[in-house]
Amino acid sequence: THLRHGSFAASAMEEVLRRTVVPLPAYEIQGKSPPVPESNSMEFINFYRSLETSQKVAFLEKVSQEFGVDHQAVAELALKLVESQKRDAATMLQAEDRLRYYLTPRYLALFGHISRVEGGMKFLLDLRGDVIEALAAKATDSPHIRGLNATLKSMLSEWFSVGLLKLERITWKSPCELLQKISQYEAVHPVRNWTDIKHRVGPYRRCYAFTNGAMPGEPLVFLHVALTEEITDNIQTIFGGRTSQELTEDEKKVKAAVFYSISSTQVGLQGVELGNYLIKRVVRELQSEFPSLDQFSSLSPIPGFTVWLLGLLNQQRNDGRRSKILMDTEWQEIERLVGSPAPERLRKLLSTNEWVHSEQLMDILKPILMRLCSWYLYGEKHRSYALNQVANFHLQNGATMWRLNWKADMSPRGISASCGMMVNYRYFLPDIGANSAKYLRTKVIEASEQILNLVSQFQKNSKL
Amino acid sequence: THLRHGSFAASAMEEVLRRTVVPLPAYEIQGKSPPVPESNSMEFINFYRSLETSQKVAFLEKVSQEFGVDHQAVAELALKLVESQKRDAATMLQAEDRLRYYLTPRYLALFGHISRVEGGMKFLLDLRGDVIEALAAKATDSPHIRGLNATLKSMLSEWFSVGLLKLERITWKSPCELLQKISQYEAVHPVRNWTDIKHRVGPYRRCYAFTNGAMPGEPLVFLHVALTEEITDNIQTIFGGRTSQELTEDEKKVKAAVFYSISSTQVGLQGVELGNYLIKRVVRELQSEFPSLDQFSSLSPIPGFTVWLLGLLNQQRNDGRRSKILMDTEWQEIERLVGSPAPERLRKLLSTNEWVHSEQLMDILKPILMRLCSWYLYGEKHRSYALNQVANFHLQNGATMWRLNWKADMSPRGISASCGMMVNYRYFLPDIGANSAKYLRTKVIEASEQILNLVSQFQKNSKL
Amino acid sequence: THLRHGSFAASAMEEVLRRTVVPLPAYEIQGKSPPVPESNSMEFINFYRSLETSQKVAFLEKVSQEFGVDHQAVAELALKLVESQKRDAATMLQAEDRLRYYLTPRYLALFGHISRVEGGMKFLLDLRGDVIEALAAKATDSPHIRGLNATLKSMLSEWFSVGLLKLERITWKSPCELLQKISQYEAVHPVRNWTDIKHRVGPYRRCYAFTNGAMPGEPLVFLHVALTEEITDNIQTIFGGRTSQELTEDEKKVKAAVFYSISSTQVGLQGVELGNYLIKRVVRELQSEFPSLDQFSSLSPIPGFTVWLLGLLNQQRNDGRRSKILMDTEWQEIERLVGSPAPERLRKLLSTNEWVHSEQLMDILKPILMRLCSWYLYGEKHRSYALNQVANFHLQNGATMWRLNWKADMSPRGISASCGMMVNYRYFLPDIGANSAKYLRTKVIEASEQILNLVSQFQKNSKL
Amino acid sequence: THLRHGSFAASAMEEVLRRTVVPLPAYEIQGKSPPVPESNSMEFINFYRSLETSQKVAFLEKVSQEFGVDHQAVAELALKLVESQKRDAATMLQAEDRLRYYLTPRYLALFGHISRVEGGMKFLLDLRGDVIEALAAKATDSPHIRGLNATLKSMLSEWFSVGLLKLERITWKSPCELLQKISQYEAVHPVRNWTDIKHRVGPYRRCYAFTNGAMPGEPLVFLHVALTEEITDNIQTIFGGRTSQELTEDEKKVKAAVFYSISSTQVGLQGVELGNYLIKRVVRELQSEFPSLDQFSSLSPIPGFTVWLLGLLNQQRNDGRRSKILMDTEWQEIERLVGSPAPERLRKLLSTNEWVHSEQLMDILKPILMRLCSWYLYGEKHRSYALNQVANFHLQNGATMWRLNWKADMSPRGISASCGMMVNYRYFLPDIGANSAKYLRTKVIEASEQILNLVSQFQKNSKL
Q1: In which domain, by residue range, is B38 found?
Q2: Does D173 contact A217 at a Cβ distance shorter than 8 Å?
């Protein structure tokens, strides 16, 4: 059923769009248009699904360009609005409303109709997923598609508004279907098997998800929490060392809640903030279950650090001189262990994860990597905010960059990502509102003394 | 806690709004504003709830007027948009998007924040209920309030989008809380007691509701259906004559589904079409339960007919001449029974419901009222659509005005409303799409022969 | 379908029993008999249901007499058992087991088969209900029927063993069907309407039931509890004075749990103790919900007191002398108020509930009725246990007769039953085991000082 | 906490039993004994659990011997019963009832009390499991323990009476906990992983369990069904060849229901027939879901056939002559393929499963193994019933031995058990009542022509 020939595809697209996209009714008769038959939406859905990836992009470009805003009409109304400014409030407001109405792209109504048929909402989620992937893959750069993406995002953010989501606790008694999804979607620490997932929903653990009541088996975002006596500084403790499911929780031992994984499941909801709300709802839930629980913190990965570090080492090699991100004495020590040329060797060892097999090398590297990583987290920026996305997420939520942990995730994945380090972002509840506002407005990162010390060591000993 | 003095109230309002309504962030940093603390929303909610009705209107006027659109900024951007027309697509699209952004009233963000706190969604539903009542009661006529109403409606219509609602069947095993609400909200045929509601969810009956998963106990709109052998022509049959709950349904006797009551529960969702979707979903549900079921019809009240009729009689009395809505021979017959002056007497008998005590009078009036009522339904218009709102609802859905029924609701309520008549709007499934489109576009009402005959009798024998 | 003629009925019964009651298989092949077809059981059920009440009794007499134990076989085995005493353990045990087997009435297997068909368990519950009623109505006095009753009771007590029952909390969100049953079965304080039952499951109230998982909508026994600051001394406080459902519970105000009603729903489970276990389970449940809750008490009716009192007054009248249950001075006071002859007048006023209309009379009667009632509860016995069944129930459970309350139930029902008095049986948790054992073994009633004082006043001032 | 020294253990046992086992109350005051405190039962449970296996047996011997029936009292009552035969019915019945009462072992009341504490029912299930294992392992041969086993079985069979069990369908949406148990308990075809179990509850499959409402997560017995177009003749088809979960069932393709696995989960319920009832309930359930489904059959393993066959071969070798279970010509053919001595070689190949690697050998063996296996199923007996337990189960249920299938389970397990063969026991619904009765009474096996032909080939060509 694939459409092989461009010209045929193009005419099929036009045919489908002609039939399925209704014109924008005149402002005066809005809300009086006949209900669009469901078959229209189904045709659109089925047609889209029959397309190959590249055709989908072409199709969406067509939709966004030809079924968007009527620019000429808008320009005329804009002129009228300018004139209306001198008139009475009612006239002015109406001019604004009229303009607002015509600024609505025609495809918005199409998406609205699709959202109402069975499976339509999920289709739109997936459609936006495609748009996001196409933009990320640079398969398109059309400003119209960007507009369509923004429109879809805005629609989805209303439909999946936090106020209408349900917090669900997931346990070993939850439906298998749900637990399987939780396992498959887990993005931070992959689930190895069913014993593993059973532990993650067992005693001293909590798993919460936001679901929409109309899609009961579909978690939108979920959060894993470990209940501990102290804020955990490594992931091994969380995954290992458990004895038995029969273990019953001792409420007195629950003094800290450690968020060790948060995953969104729907690419199509990118940019629709749910994780932030989920953390806050879970904090409230835990406080009501454990009135004396008062420490809240993440235990977060640092994706990108190793890549950043290797980039630095590489770049400086290309500069033809020994990297200044380590002091000379440090280079010498390393050279003693690994032979020369030390930078070359070190880069190799880091990029193959082999450095962790030498305890001596690890001892030498510990202070170096800790200060570099704290800088990476604290000092590296993207549009003035933290470059690292996980950091940026928690800082926006109002958390404090609290503790960098050595040997915190010694899985191959953890070593590849961040030389085995992880970081706690701590949620000091009374401060998170102020912290969040400060970070968003001033971009200043709230950090603990440990972090600030490491940063200042970096500034003293490393040169970028 | 009520605010007694206008000036104090006004300053308190300003104080609250200053604190709780955040300025619209600049277009460039949208989505980068610090999350608004929940306490803001709670303060707004509590303040609003502490106000008296008249204060609420004043408060909303202030919100809508002072925290709406920045008209000057919009006018400037409108000019820029006009200029951008000559530029490249990206520039033009951005100008449009920027204008669209600034056309957003500031209170929209406020409502968004409120929607996310616990109970916030219900608060906004109720708030819009207040707005609608204030406008209906002419407590305000501010165009700004009308704008706020439109904004709220648009937000609510996204949040309560059909695609995210759940169809729930309500039975005697449903939670009491839910059945109590179904009883209280019932708008068409009031529920007398618990035996009554038990019958309405018992054998040969179906009751379905749309609920939002996040508000499980709260039906948004619900529909009562009777499963019968023939399309029922009176409500007495539906409510009476049942024997026992123990009765088990015989699938072979289910040949018609009669929608005898549909009620919306939330004033705040006025204008957000849910009933139409509910009927269609229920039809699908019933078809899957009873594959051989193939007759679908409403049994609907005709609110307003008696009032319209008395109005006619009254108006013609004021004209000082015998009403021409009846033929002279008809007037004579009536006069023989009720004495003279017949119009006066008749009006009295109709307005007190006493005419039903005379079988003879009823016999005389039957053809007269039937033709008048069919005209009322078919011929009386409001903005070219059917004046009667129930008729308009079913016709928009694509139903056919199928059968006018005499002695169909002989309760005092039924006689007062429509001289005891009810009407079946029939849903011929293959035609409803076309019917709906035709009615909405051409305003032509699809009607059965019975109705058209009655209408032509009216046209022959009655003069308005 | 009723069987009108005795002879026909008798032969129909025989026919049915011949077909449906299988012979007891020989001991050697027990467990190897072909499964009895379900149609047998259905035939028995339907036949029984088609009988009139008197026929049912005749039928059950026939079943119990002709399909019971084979007396001759049993006698022979009994002899063999006596002989086996001199033999080895295995032989002796087998002789016992064989005798035990043949002591099983044939109808036991019939009931077993019936219990396995759909609705069979409920049929047997109802069947035993019929037996109990027939015995109570003296419609039969057959020792065989008494035997059948004992067999059924023993079977039902295994099937409805507490270890397999589920404790369910009933709230306003429970299925309407269940709440309707709770209302209908309520034996102590009849439920007036749905507002009333809503209050009884609302805030500061708890309602728990034992259900069997296989009959989900059928509560077997249920208990109503009021959560109060102090142990309540009247029922008006419990039913009245509530303001609103919206009321939320303040955990700090929950210091006492008052069991104000416990009802069994199945006559067929008479003598199968469930209430005792329900109270204990509920106590545990409440302790876990309210860790600081530490006062548990019933607020119980005293059915039979007024009847007992009127009996006394009547009997003493027939003795032709002024009753000695009141002191002469008391009689004089009463006579001043009601005229003479005082005993006659008083009896009349008490039997019509009219005495409560005079505050003066009530003041005079208060100490008298309190001491008489405390004696009725404490001193009147049936087979050495408390005559009053409610008292006997709570005392067997290990409760203490704690407080007699004046004006505790001023409803007509309460006045008719016990001159408006009620009694608290208090559950002092650490003592209930010992109390129960003491009461059952020694018949001594554990009572508070208030009760003992009242009893000693009775002994001083009243003569029976 | 283990008890190491015999004498100490013995005295501890006596101490515990003295405290926890109450004497049998006199007949006259039965039902009037104080409720046994729960702590008694908990002490018994905890003590028992602290014992080592051998101590448990000793303990149970003590319980069964010293806390059983009072033999002397019983003998005296037996004499009285004999005498009562000449008296009136009431006296005789009472003598019987009194004897029945004293024939109750004292430990029955103990078990009754234990059944009522939390977890007590499960404890008793497990306790009987221990008894059964001890008897099977010949760790005891005490007739008293056999008596205790019978008493426990009888109690458990009442508590887990089919009339009180709930049929539950298990799907991929069932709780993970439940699906894990279904996987672990699967006795017939072990579950390999979660994909496997997902398939077994997916489209064209059904899984049903009996549960007791009070132990919601605990399936007592469960049945796996494949819905197919024809009665399946091998297990590979059932487990393999599936494409996708997304597959939706086409009702028209469901013409046969194949029960391919039934497993009991509780050793303690051995001898309490549930499987039979489960199959019948599931048949009813499937008939109501698929009205046109009319073929019901098992696809059953034949455990024991290979062992039986090797036994035969071995035994005949010891007889020093070529086995007569094969014809000479057959032996010659085999010898040609495997070398001599053929019997020796064949036994080796069969016992190592290696024979399946030679297609030629399989071809030769097919008719031989088919006729031997059909005899094994049809002709080999234990106490006149089918020796093979699976066969006996289905024949007792009324099924017909319908078809022996070659290459039906080619897993190592299937080849080891029955040379890869499986058998269909077919349930012809109208006949199962008569079949069951015939089999149980006459021991005659209802078999199809295919089976009977194979049996007659065996009789012609094989000599045992």
Answers
A1: 6-69+104-159
A2: yes
